[in-house]
Predict the structure.
Amino acid sequence: MPGSALGWADEMVIDKVDEIFKKYDVDGSGVLEKRECLNVINDILTQKGLPRASAAQFNRYFAEVDTNGDCVLSREEMTKFVTKF
Ligand SMILES: [Ca+2]
């Protein structure tokens, strides 16, 4: 099927975003607050055997992903976040 490889990749990303929201959106608000996002980043770094992000690194990274600057990550923004990693 044409484009099936891309479709599969998209599905993987959607699954990953669902998983992240299920695990880290502890108050069920449908967006990830900054402190919730810090847990996501640190868990991913730990899984990769990397040191935790410093506050400066995290703030820079968060600002990059939070494209509308409202200090929370929507599912759409998290999708971009997941494809970056
Ligand atoms: Ca945002």
About this structure: Residues 4-84 form a domain with the Recoverin; domain 1 fold (CATH 1.10.238.10).
